[in-house]
Amino acid sequence: MTDENTEAAGVEEETPSPGDAGAETEVDELTALKQELEERTDDLKRVTAEYANYRKRVDRDRKLVADQATISVVTGLLPVLDDLDRARSHGDLTGPFGSVAEQLTGALTKLGLTAFGEKGDAFDPNRHEAVAHLLSPDVSEQTCIDVMRRGYELGDRLVRPALVAVADPDPSAAKPAEEPAEATESAGEPAVAEESGGEQEAATVGDGAGETPSEETAPEAEKPEGDK
């Protein structure tokens, strides 16, 4: 009987209780749920990021299409703006014609169109197109001295460069500043020659002055002999 009781007790110890098995099952299920939740959360974040990038790309493409359409319309009106500039320079933008010109210019300005290109502007090869180059001692950098046709920008995009004549710095303009020093040195040489020449003349005159008394005293020495 003792052996049978001992074996029965060992079997009872090895067999897990129903409560422990249920707890382990709940832990496994909870771990699986947490893992699945993390996976679904990552999927949601990825989908959200992809959608945000898609919205940005669509907005960028939409703006690009709108800008291209605006540039196309504005480019077609540039010859009209050139005619208005010529009329303005001749004083012909008066009356109703001037009012229409102001309205057109104002409408294009609201679209973001800006004109550039004035005399005295520094030459920028990215915004200016040079049709002539002249050397000038009055400039220290490439400068626009005449504007044949103004340029236009739409926002930060170049629509058309300005046609300009450019004055380039004259490299020979700095040389005359060195010439006066050379002229002073060359002018000093004749002065030295004149001084040396004057000294020689003075020496010659001095020698002649010393010989004159000897010639005059000779006749005076002969006078007593004549009297005898």
From TrEMBL:
Assembly and oligomerization: Homodimer.
Broad class of the protein's primary localization: cytoplasm
Location(s), subcellular: Cytoplasm
Residues covered by region (Disordered): 1-27, 169-228
Lineage, top ranks: Bacteria, Bacillati, Actinomycetota, Actinomycetes, Micromonosporales
Record GO cellular component, one term: cytoplasm
A single GO molecular function term of this UniProt record: protein homodimerization activity
Keyword Nucleus: no
Family: Belongs to the GrpE family.
Name this polypeptide is given: Protein GrpE
UniProt feature coiled coil, ranges: none
Annotated Acidic residues bias: 1-15
Keywords in alphabetical order: Chaperone, Cytoplasm, Stress response
UniProt cross-references to PANTHER family, sorted A to Z: GRPE PROTEIN, GRPE PROTEIN HOMOLOG, MITOCHONDRIAL
Function in brief: Participates actively in the response to hyperosmotic and heat shock by preventing the aggregation of stress-denatured proteins, in association with DnaK and GrpE. It is the nucleotide exchange factor for DnaK and may function as a thermosensor. Unfolded proteins bind initially to DnaJ; upon interaction with the DnaJ-bound protein, DnaK hydrolyzes its bound ATP, resulting in the formation of a stable complex. GrpE releases ADP from DnaK; ATP binding to DnaK triggers the release of the substrate protein, thus completing the reaction cycle.
Biological processes per GO annotation: protein folding
Entry-linked InterPro entries: GrpE, GrpE_CC, GrpE_head
Pfam families for this protein: GrpE
Provenance organism: Actinorhabdospora filicis
This protein's record includes keyword 4Fe-4S: no
